[in-house]
Amino acid sequence: MKTKLFSTLVCVACALFSLQLAAQPTPTADGLWLADDGEHINCHGGNIIRLSDGVYYWYGEHRVQNIPGTTEDGISLYTSTDLKTWHNEGLVLKASADTLSDIALGCIMERPKVVYNEKTGKYVMLFHLELKGKGYAAARVAFAVADNPKGPFTFLRSLRPNPGKWPADFKKADKKTAKAQNPSDYSKWWTPEWRVAIEKGMFLNRDFEGGQMSRDMTVYIDDDGTAYHIFSSEDNLTLHLAELTDDYLDYTGRYWRIAPCGQNEAPTLFKKDGTYWLITSGCTGWAPNEARMFKASKITGPWEQVACPSRGEGAKTTFGGQGTYVMSDPARPGEFIFMADIWTPKQLSHSRHLWIPIKFENGAPVLEVQK
Ligand code: GAL
Predict the structure, then answer these.
(1) 111 close to ligand 1 (CB < 6 Angstrom)
(2) Residue 264 exposed, middle or buried by CB count within 10 Å (0-12, 13-18, 19+)
(3) Would the CA dihedral through 176, 177, 183, 186 be positive or negative?
(4) How far apart are CA 79 and CA 258, in angstroms?
(5) pLDDT digits over 240-268, tens only?
(6) Cβ proximity of 275 and 262 under 8 Å
(7) Where does the pLDDT of residue 132 fall: very low under 50, low under 70, confident under 90, or very high at 90 and above?
(8) What are the two backbone dihedrals, phi and then psi, of residue 192, each rounded to the nearest 5 degrees?
(9) Do 237 and 198 touch, CB atoms closer than 8 A?
């Protein structure tokens, strides 16, 4: 009897405990999340980190108000101590008035992720950058750094990762095979032969000299402090997981491909009980699609695709959202929030936020939205 009472109390305590990280703003009738400035939280495609000061820092795309389309003016920051009420801290990185800058106003800055580097004591931001006037052709990653989590961040540079480098697990024969794949041999995309050529590294080889394409992305710091940049590469067909240098400001040159020709975007990565989980989306632009999930016992792979984590009504479209980050809190190990954006392309600044506390069934992550 005593044991039963004890376990009931433990369960109640656990439930309250997990509710803590599940806290989120109360939406308005039309689903907006208002910050303390009375405006919808204009912070999209980003991430949240909780620092030792007990504050949650939420970084994201600041989309220009009332202007349809994709242009934006910088990266915003909101702060909170309870995940429910948020203070607008303004822009921590502004698009530049200098038309020659890589981040000239009118560029596209997407999916920023900020991480803290224990060794250097700096805050490092990586984001997907598209150069002004070039649509989505540049496919670059950009680096910025700050001494303070509230910024201002200094833009360092933008680039395509890992020029002149083959994946770390490519053997001599793999390199030879990749080099033999020639895009001009295929007049049509998406045929079975073309897919095989992509898997063998046709686009990897195409971009070998200039660096690999880098669009939708996240950053993950492993338990040993090593940081990885995970991004949609090879024309959004294949994910790359690239190791960063100790200061998180460059690449070591070691990288691994995940799901070649699998067409994954919006990568989010986390680790629970020794297993790495990767939840992604398909490639349908701003329109939502069904999430995919992969697991691995080593971050460098092999990664195995497993069942979609979503359950119940809305599961086929990830409840209208597309993942951006899996938030963990150092104070609450084992608890995770899947953060997603419900994009409203006619006015991206009003894209809604969707946070789903991750449940685990037989050890596997499950996403379910409570009605
Ligand atoms: C989505 C991507 C977004 C944005 C959009 C542009 O697939 O996840 O971050 O790039 O395409 O159409």
Answers:
(1) yes
(2) buried
(3) positive
(4) 34
(5) 999 999 999 999 999 999 999 999 999 99
(6) no
(7) very high
(8) -55, -40
(9) yes
Joined tokens for residue 168: 């770390």
Q: Which residues contact 320 (CB under 8 A, 6 or more apart)?
A: 288, 314, 342, 352, 354
Q: Could you tell me which residues come within 8 angstroms of residue 91 by beta carbon, excluding any fewer than 6 positions away? A: 62, 73, 74, 75, 76, 77, 151
Which residue type does 321 have? G
Helix (H) or strand (E) holding 158: strand 154-159
Beta carbon of 181 within 6 Å of any ligand 1 atom: no
pLDDT reading at 189 higher than 50: yes
CB of 44 closer than 6 A to ligand 1?
no
Q: Please say whether the beta carbons of 119 and 247 come within 8 A.
A: yes
Q: Which two tokens stand for residue 249?
A: 């400001």
Nearest CA to ligand 1 atom 6: 285
